[in-house]
Structure formats: structure tokens, C-alpha cells
Amino acid sequence: MITGWRHPARLVVLAFLAATAAGTALLMLPMSAESGRMTGFMDALFTAASGISGTGLAVVDTGSHWSTFGEVVLLVLWQVGGFGIMTLTSVLALLVSHKLGLHLQLTVKTETNTLNLGQVRAVVAGVVAISLVVEAVGAVVLALRFWLGYGEPFGRALYSGVFHSVSSFNSVGLALYPDSLVRYATDPWVCLPIVVVAVLGGLGFPVLFELLRRRRRKRWSLHTRITVPVYLGLMAFGTLVVLVVEWGRAGTLGPFGFGDKVLVGLFHGVMFGTAGFNTVDVAQLQPATMLAGDVLMFIGGGSAGTTGGIKVTTFALLAYVLLAEVRAEPSVHVMGRRISAEVQRQAVTVALLGVGVVMAATLVLLATSSFRLDDVLFETTAAFGGVGLSSGITADLSVTGQLVVIVLMFIGRVGPITLVSALALRERRRRYELPEERPIVG
Amino acid sequence: MITGWRHPARLVVLAFLAATAAGTALLMLPMSAESGRMTGFMDALFTAASGISGTGLAVVDTGSHWSTFGEVVLLVLWQVGGFGIMTLTSVLALLVSHKLGLHLQLTVKTETNTLNLGQVRAVVAGVVAISLVVEAVGAVVLALRFWLGYGEPFGRALYSGVFHSVSSFNSVGLALYPDSLVRYATDPWVCLPIVVVAVLGGLGFPVLFELLRRRRRKRWSLHTRITVPVYLGLMAFGTLVVLVVEWGRAGTLGPFGFGDKVLVGLFHGVMFGTAGFNTVDVAQLQPATMLAGDVLMFIGGGSAGTTGGIKVTTFALLAYVLLAEVRAEPSVHVMGRRISAEVQRQAVTVALLGVGVVMAATLVLLATSSFRLDDVLFETTAAFGGVGLSSGITADLSVTGQLVVIVLMFIGRVGPITLVSALALRERRRRYELPEERPIVG
Ligand SMILES: [K+]
Ligand SMILES: [K+]
């Protein structure tokens, strides 16, 4: 038994800080760089933080700057970050929710805030097993394509397959090519496996676990029944915006034929909420596409998954609160279940703090640079949402700006769940009740 | 007795539509234009909607396009809009809040949704009296300055004083000069009276009424005790951002001396939350200043005042909800009073719908124009917040774009309070309670 674990949220924060420090040290080693020279502290720190948080924003070009050793360090950072975030947030979620429907024979005692060590082991084993299987399948499919379709040597194709599959599942979105995946824009055998692997990583461990265990939709937990359709709906919205806005634009979808337009549109619609690879030049996207992307990146993916953001369930709960209020219903009902006032308030808190953090960071970046709102808001929402998309300003930010982005990546990845669990696990003081008064709203 | 008035919110919407239609017809008349030719439908519609809603965004130059008759039509539209919004929203607020602390001997029967006609008359009389007195004092101060300080003929100075005072109090922000008030940027005798008149209009009728009646702060209603400090605090934040970001910029504060910088900074810090006059070229503002302005314009001013936006109390309540959650307090307490879950949910709903409407409008404007996010978001938040500031794109928007802005101005002005009162006055169906389930948040 792990007892007296009063602030498990602290563990998450400390683990991420420690891993980032170790990653920074490793990446600074001369052997990590292609040039054989030491990499500067800020570049190494940024790359490590971006890797551990699975954000994938980059200040140096991945393929050309890092040696193969450096790339393996990156892979390990991504995988540790992915395992870590899924395990730790799943454990936190277990502590918070009495019942996740995980069928892990978990009898969580939230009164004492303790988890059986066996339960934690079961989560770790589940996370590792699911991650490795999905990554392996993705890696094999990609490797076969690189080998057979592009004639790459088998070893190189396999390495590339593993690299991009791990990058996808852990929502990193860094590729071995300076233009991300633009060269594969019209190849569904590369794009679609990456989409599938990235979506699986983004759905989050609790959903994946349940999907594997229970075939019948009716028996899914509320969490899964919200996450799956809303996540897919957000991706459909993203795809639609990309297609409508970029359809005839010379810099993006214009040059492609009908089918390829749809493929690229779908790829980017999905990538806003997952890994953040790109198959067109992000700097050429229209402001409308970028704004839609901002919203999708801010929301992120499923809870206890590999993306950042406020998460799909938080967004969906806010929509349900709004719907209940507009319908003048006293309770918030979602798919035959009632949502407690406590959970509603947690969702509101996560969203408000998310907006506050992103707005404050955007204001600081704007004030300390000469970039415009389109690019800066895209950068900050990408950092908060753990999406490695950038219109290209990352490397040109000042040290202050890069530190702000690092903090945002960190907050976006561990912030919401840590916050909610820290709040939910805290004992609530009973207070005397004050008389009610009603200010005018609106 | 006005009985059976089941949907008073409808009255607000209909009154605004009718006034806009009448204003459009009057402004289209040849005699309304300086040129003596008929003004086009879209220009007249936009000007009328902007005037009635007190937004002050403009597609034609006020001073040069409209004849004196046209300007008087504008003044009447602004005044009718100001009277209308303050009266109607005060009445709605009275219907919703059992007790506003207005000491109007109001015994509102919300069960039957009826108001005594005498009560409505008292509100109308109070609104008209306060408006006319504040506007008259502002007009006299401004007229004296224009007459004595600038040597304008007495009649012209008086007309100008009335015009700008009415424009200030009703949060319109349109001036008789093509550069707004840039020529008076360093004249505190023009700027400060306008600031004071605009802030009084923005505070809202319930607050003004209470400030006049009760000298001792301890006896103020919660509404007033929230609105006054938060509104002033938001203005201080705006002033600070303008000063810090624009201090040395050649296009804005750069050319001014220390004292004038502070005056211009204060003026703009206040104007984001009120009328939206400008004393520097808005198009020259830095992106950081514009983003801070976006936030302040989105929030707007006091309830039942002459600004738009989600309103200061809505913003403050969200902050208090967040604070209570972070402190793990089961109830939301504000200054010794408890805020019901119902009111919290109304504030969340107003804010979420506000964000949704502004984001949707921004997306449409971006997709149908070639402007960038800085300018478009500034335009949409200004329209929603009823602030007449623009970086200059209003007249260049497509017809679709202008219609979107018109709808936004309308929603921003009558939306939040109408929504809340429509919700609050509706009977709530009792529903069976469903079993509770807890999705993972964050
Ligand atoms: K990513
Ligand atoms: K205005």
C-alpha cells in the first residue's frame, strides 16, 4: 500500500521536472548533435521540455541537428513522457473518480487517498502494453511503406517507421524531415497510419482500455461515450474548416487534386487535436484556418492521453452546462447521467484557467516580440495543447519568449488533470453559510 | 398593472429592431447627408444599428458624410438607444432580481412576471433624469472649453459639447472629427470630462442610482460593490498595458511628454471599456495593446449601462467561482454574500455564449476577408462590447462582413441580459433525477 500519499499531484509535477532536467543534460552532450559539438542550454532545454510534454515545437531542425544518438534520446524522452503522462494521469483520475469503468478490480479508497500498489502496476502494465502494441503496428506499416514504396534500405525504413510511429502515438509530431511530412502529403499509406496512431494516443488510456475490453457501446462509461464522438466531431470540424478555407489557396490545398485535397484536409483536421505533423506549409495557412486550429489545439484530446489542452470532456461538459441552462433544466444531464455541480465547477475552472494562462502568455509574447496575433496565438495554443504546429516563429522567439512557451507546454500537459485532482482530493472545510444575494448578470 | 407579460425579453429585442429600422429610413433620406444625396441602404443600416446599440463603429465619416439634420438623427438614435437599453435592461433586471437595492419601493412579483406600471415609470424617470443631468454637465464643460480654449463660436461650441457629451454617456464614441479626438489628445479639459461622462454611462443605471442615494459604501448592494472596483480595476489594467507597451512607440505614445503619455494612456485604458473614442491612431497600436483591448471590450461595462459585452459582474463572478474552486470552498462567497449555483451557471452561460458568438463571427470575417486576426478580433470584440474602436477595417468589410458586425453589435448590447432574464423568468420543469456519473475532467 502507498499510504499518506496526500498530494499525488506533486509527484506528476516533480516527475516531469526531473525528466526534463535529465533530457536537457543528455541533449547537451556533444554526441547528441550531428555536428559533434555541445548544444546550447536553451536549445537543449526547449527540446527536452517539448519532447517530455509531447508538444513537438522545435527550435532546431530534428533530422539535421541531432545525431542518431540524439534522436534516440528524443525517442526515449517522448516514450517516457507518453508512458509517464498516461500512467500518472490515469492514476490521478482513478483517485478522483471512484469508478472509471476500467474493470481493473480497483477499489480505490479516496477517503485515505491511497491506491493499492497492484492497481498502479495494472495501470502501468496496461499503458505500456497498449502503447507498445499500437506503436509497433504503426511502425511496421510505415516501415513497409518506406521500404517497399520508396525503396529505402530496410534498416533505415524500420528506424523511420519506429521514429514516426512513436512520434505519432505520443502526440509529439516531430518528423525526421525539415518540412515535417510535406513530402508524403498525397500518400495515404503514410498519412492514414499516422492519423490512426495519433488518434489512438490522443483518445487517452482510459478510453483505449475500455474500447479493448467492451465491444458493446451501451456498456461504455460516460467518459468514453463523451470522449469518442466529441473528439471525432472536433476533428470533423477541423477538416471541414481546412477544406472550405484552403480549397483553392495556392500555398496550401490549391495545387492538389480532389482526393488529395480531402486527404490533406483530413490529416490537418486531425493533427490540430493530436500530434501536429503537417503536410502543407503551416506558415501558408489562412488566418481563419489558424483560428479554428487555435480552438482545437486549446481543447486538445482525451483525458489521460498524450495530448495537452483542457481536454475533450472539459469542453463537452461546458457545452452541456450551457445547453442545460438554455433549456432551463435544473440539473445537467449527459446521455442519461447526471453531472454533479462539483464536476461542472471543475470543468469551468480548468477552462477559465486555460484561457487565462494562454491569454497571459500571448500578451507577454506579443509585448516581447514583433510578431502578430495570428502567429503568436497559434504558438501559445499549440504549446498549451501539446501540438507541434507552428507558423515558424518558435526559433525566433527571445529567451523570455521560449521560457514562456516551455512553461505553457508544461502547464498544458500536466496542468488540468493535476489541478482537478489536487482540488478534488483536498478536504473541504465546512464554512458557515452567508446570506445569498444576487448581482445582475449580463 | 402590466399582466401576462410573459416574455419581456422579447420586447427588448423588438424595440431595438424597430428603432434600427426607423433610424435606417431616416438616415437614407437625402437631407440626412451633407451631399444632399440618398445614403445607401447598407451604410444607413450599419450607422443606425451602430448608433442604436451605442457601438460607434462607422462605415462613413460622421462629420463629413452627415448633414446637421443627419447628425441630429444620430444624436436622437444614440439617446433613444441609451434610454432604451438602460430602461429595458433595468426593468428586466428588476424582474429577475427580487431586490436590486434600488429603493424604488419596488415589490416585484416574479411569480407572475408582472411589474407595476408605476415602477416602470420610476425607472424611466430615473434613467432620463440621470442621463440628462450627466450629459448636460458634460456638455457645458466641453462647450466652455471649445468656446474659451479654442475660440469656437458659442453656438458651434455648444453643439459640439452636446454632441460629444451625448456620444460619451451613451458609450457611442463617435466624434465630429475624422480622426476622432486625436487633436485633443493632450488637452485634459476635453479628455477628462469625456472620461468621466463615459465611465458614468458605463457603470449602468442601477449603480448610478444607488451611488446617488446612498453615500455609505457599507450599505451598497452586492451588485454595486462588485461593479465599481472591478470596472475601475479593468480600466487600470488597460491603462497600464497601454503605457507599458506603447510608451516609446513612434506611432502612438512616443511623441508625447511624460504627463501627456499618462493622459493618453488613461484615456485609452478607459475607452476600451466605455465609449471608444481615440486620441491616438488605433491602427498604430501594438498587437499586445490590441489583445488587452480585445479582452476589455469583450467584458464591457456595468449591467444595465450603455456598453455592451458580457458585463463586469459576469466577469467578476467567474473569477470568484474560480477562486472558490481553487480554495476548495463548497460555496461561492463574494464580499460576505453567497452566490447561488443558479447565478453562477448564468454567468458561465453568458460568458460561453459570448466567446462562441465572437469566435464564430471572427472565423466568418477571417474567411470572407483578407484581414489578419489582430484587426478582425479587435473589430468583433469592439462590436460585441459596443466599443467604437477599429483599426480601420470596418468600411472595407464585405456586405456579409458588415452584416456579421451588425448582428454582433445587436447581440452584444441586448444579448446577455435578455438571455439571462429569459432564462431566469422561465418556469423550470421538474425532471426525474438520473444517476450521477463522473467523467474525467482535465
Ligand atoms: K504534439
Ligand atoms: K461605443
UniProtKB/TrEMBL annotation, chains A, B:
It is a multi-pass membrane protein. Coiled coil: none annotated. InterPro entries: Cat_transpt (IPR003445). It is found in: Cell membrane. Keywords: Cell membrane, Ion transport, Membrane, Transmembrane, Transmembrane helix, Transport. The chain crosses the membrane at residues 12-29, 41-60, 72-96, 122-148, 157-177, 189-209, 230-250, 295-323, 343-367, 401-425. The keyword Coiled coil does not apply. The keyword Transmembrane helix applies. This is Potassium transporter Trk. It comes from Lentzea cavernae.
